[in-house]
Amino acid sequence: MVRAREAVPVAPVGGRLAPIGVGAVEITGGFWAERRAVNSASTLEHCTSWLEELGWLANFDRAAAGQRSERSGREFADSETYKVIEACAWDVAGAADPQARETAERLYQSLAARVVAAQQPDGYLNTRFGGAGQPERYSDLAWGHELYCAGHLIQAAVARLRTAGEDAFVRAAYRVADHVCSVFGPGGAEQVCGHPEIETALAELARATGVDRYRQTAAAFVERRGRGLLPPSLFGSAYFQDDVPVREATVLRGHAVRALYLSAAAVDVAVDTGDDDLLAAVVRQWDATLARRTYLTGGMGSRLMDESFGDDYELPSDGAYAETCAGIASIMLAWRLLLATGEERFADAMERAMYNIVAASVGRDGRSFFYANTLHRRVAVDDVDPSTPHPRSVSGLRAPWFDVSCCPTNSARFLASLPGYVATADGDGVQIHQYATSRVRTVVRGMNVDLDVETDYPVSGRVAVTIRTDAAEPWSLSLRVPEWADGGARLDGVPVVGPVARVTRAFSSGDTVVLDLPVVPRLVHPDHRIDAVRGTVAAMRGPLVECLESIDLPPGARLEDVVVLPEPPRLEAGRVVLRGVTVEASQQLPYRREPDRSSRSSEPFDVVLVPYLEHAERGPSAMRVWLPLATPDPEATA
Amino acid sequence: MVRAREAVPVAPVGGRLAPIGVGAVEITGGFWAERRAVNSASTLEHCTSWLEELGWLANFDRAAAGQRSERSGREFADSETYKVIEACAWDVAGAADPQARETAERLYQSLAARVVAAQQPDGYLNTRFGGAGQPERYSDLAWGHELYCAGHLIQAAVARLRTAGEDAFVRAAYRVADHVCSVFGPGGAEQVCGHPEIETALAELARATGVDRYRQTAAAFVERRGRGLLPPSLFGSAYFQDDVPVREATVLRGHAVRALYLSAAAVDVAVDTGDDDLLAAVVRQWDATLARRTYLTGGMGSRLMDESFGDDYELPSDGAYAETCAGIASIMLAWRLLLATGEERFADAMERAMYNIVAASVGRDGRSFFYANTLHRRVAVDDVDPSTPHPRSVSGLRAPWFDVSCCPTNSARFLASLPGYVATADGDGVQIHQYATSRVRTVVRGMNVDLDVETDYPVSGRVAVTIRTDAAEPWSLSLRVPEWADGGARLDGVPVVGPVARVTRAFSSGDTVVLDLPVVPRLVHPDHRIDAVRGTVAAMRGPLVECLESIDLPPGARLEDVVVLPEPPRLEAGRVVLRGVTVEASQQLPYRREPDRSSRSSEPFDVVLVPYLEHAERGPSAMRVWLPLATPDPEATA
């Protein structure tokens, strides 16, 4: 039997930093502990109920019984079950509450058994293809999502393998992977799946099992892409990233989740094979994407129509798609780049998306979700029925489920695995990348290193790390200084320069290091090339993007009429506050000879913001992140 | 036999102004004469070739032969043939070239015969429904476009009736209309078509024939709408304007062409029945739509996904949909409102869309078309094959045809009928609303009034009107003063106040009146509520919106890096010219602590614009209408 390696979501063979796994990092309190508790207590059961109610789970039972004529859901419906299984696998090892671990184990067992029963004798496992009355296996690689589903199954099995060890489900995944490799591996069919996912999955399975064939097949899929193996979609070959080979591309493009999953796999292949050129190609694409195709929230993918990135600087607030899954995928990619390079800017990007995409997408109840994460909702829209899947990806409130429901289950597996994204170790010491009250246990050069992190982050910027082990020799504790701290961070009272606060010492148990980050509200200005937000500002506090909801406006004021004054934001009763005015609306063609000087304005009033991640929690509301700045006007009294 | 009334596209029974028909207005030279000549000489044949090649015409032959199993094209394909027939019908009376009139007559006869042959014994005529192996008649009113197609057939017949008199095609249209009225008229099925068109068609047929039942059915369709008679689309009931009754709505919403066609019909019903409340409701919706949901080009409908208006001030330049058919529909509605009210602001709106949507959509060759009319193309896109229908509505160059090809044929019928939208008469005299070198013949209080209009408009702002008849008593010549003239218009050298320049006199033959309009380039500033274009300016010259194409930039400059300096535009060698600089691109996350002051800029250079209607005529180019204004910066040297 193959043994689990450390319980990490990603286990590169090479690279700069070694991840510390779920279980070895325990998140015990604060923001993410709360979110994870809700995920364990509510979201897993919520997702499973919908899978059952809609018949997506019954698809496995019907397939097992050879009765496939009645299949429910879209072609990728199997993957939702796999993501819930993956979430359970992480929770079995990582849920803070022992009761939650037991529940997760029970749910895991029941779901896994139904999946395993549907496997074909030759290892193939998909409820949508290959059965009586169904399309042939692999007859629609572009859109059928067969390998995508297989990838999610394998990822779930890798999580299980690393947190609990081999079992029937894991062995089923081996057989799925073997089947995929025999059909598509080196020497096999020169084809790729329309939606990348199998690539990272096989790379991880290779890492977890040591079977090199999985890695070779993952590498083959990565290298095949960009060579026109898929029929162009209505949106062109870029939709599938089949327009340019990964190593030649200069920026992420096409369908955002596809692009990010593919890039993550490219990093896996690059790191495991020491292919620096491939790694550099992905870093180059990441940098260009961050500079020109990323929202303030970390959201990626501007276009609704094809869920794609769009062109450089095409970042409309109101049309922002910024799919939750793309946010999660960007975290997966950034984590791999952080492990590969050790550069904290990747952890900055993770933090941005964790707070402003993942935490914003999942409602506080753990039973409602945004699929698209707009930055500007012009009209309060009450379009969600909590008892019905939402037919569209864009909604005015968080919805319980969607006709295409990738995001809820993706959030669930990410939140369950989140401890695995917090800290790393290397020969020099321990690096803390994300801040949460937590306990971290690892080994540095043979020395056991335990530490406790205590913080109210992001409400407070104080992060206290207490070492719980004595060290025979010096090691380094490295704490990320977020880019947004902008020179304002202090380590034990001393200003920190650069992206890392580091203390190197032969620590004794009880030693405490305190990082202070300036989580005072600040204004953020956009690059002038982003047409959609020219002339506006946004407020942030620490990693949190703030927004204005119409529900917080004075009576009678309309969101579209509000402009803010160029004054520093204040913090009042825990809320970020600006000053603003409303400007009278015109009823003419809105194009004029003279600049619109906003002169007929109201008396100034407090513009009270709310963290973006809390938007739409108080019912339907118009909302905007980027706030128009009052135009300078000598005549204006305001 | 019912006789043709005057050859006008719209013949209201009531209202302020009476239109002067095609034929009575002859456009003899200048901008529109050239466009109309190309329409007659190229576009009609071009459209017919595609209808033939794709089998959309053969659908009628197959239906006539009772062999319907092989039908080609979308559910609304019949309507494209009807629009070409309508264009031919107008050209028979209105084409400047006698040869073109003959060609139009031949084409009319051949197309009309094939349509007539497909009519069922009971009058029903549609190639997609009701035949063997086809869906039942009226089994999919929401999406089937049956009544929409019937409406276009009837409109074509009305054009024929008014320009040439009754014939077999016109009689076929009577029978179609009779069939529609018997099924859906008062006392019939309380249903509506998903796409309005039958309403205006029946209203016009009532006007052309005097048969009141047609008007009653048109009125019934208008009044039924907004009462949830259609199943909500994925985009909601507003998509079909089935959310709120016409008289209660406050703004146009949902699918733009649907909304505009419905509103046009509501005006027809209102005017013919003296229903001032209904007219006021449409005027209110028009005003709100112009103030908050209309592009600088006159384009309407912001959203690609459902071709809909979107929310107030949701007017992205790069995502602008602004469908050509919506532009034409806005002209049809504005013309009706002009006739009903006599207010020239509606003619202003027509002019805006005529030059910047219709003339921009149709290529100079008359064989290429934009379906969507964006205001910002970030990247030069060479995505059109002149030998293949374009699969999408958005294209980087004008395409020969589209899978959904409503726009080419709609442009063709509009251009053919254009003389009917130029001038009106009333008891007081003659009103010229659109300027073109032309001959106008009408009757005022029993007096024959002939006049010649001579102008290079819009290249020049000089419009000379010479009266060719002697008048026994005074009458008024009224000339529209476009809103953009902004106080700069002169009539015979005297400044004009207000939207009309009027001379009242017992004119003698040879009398000339000269209107001078200031077609100097000017800057236009957007309302500060239009987020997408905050901090930018656009240039216009007369009615023409100008744009910047990347092909006109200095070598190495990228469109996204160009900002213009706040200086008045100049006219040089016929081109509008601004001054601008390029600003260095950053490679970081484009959100910063400090405002982006564009300080690292190039030396200033000339930014040479081109009329929007000529964009993409020189090959693929990035393009933008709204140009970012340089941010004031004391340190900047530029």
UniProtKB/TrEMBL annotation, chains A, B:
Q: Which GO terms describe its biological process?
A: carbohydrate metabolic process
Which residue positions does the secretion signal occupy? none
Q: Which residue ranges does the record assign to the Non-reducing end beta-L-arabinofuranosidase-like GH127 catalytic domain?
A: 24-419
Q: Where is the Non-reducing end beta-L-arabinofuranosidase-like GH127 middle domain?
A: 430-518
Q: Where's the Non-reducing end beta-L-arabinofuranosidase-like GH127 C-terminal domain?
A: 521-628
Q: Which domain of life is it from?
A: Bacteria
Instruction: Return the PANTHER family for the record.
Output: DUF1680 DOMAIN PROTEIN (AFU_ORTHOLOGUE AFUA_1G08910) (PTHR43465)
Protein name listed in UniProt = Glycoside hydrolase family 127 protein
Lineage at the top is: Bacteria, Bacillati, Actinomycetota, Actinomycetes, Micrococcales
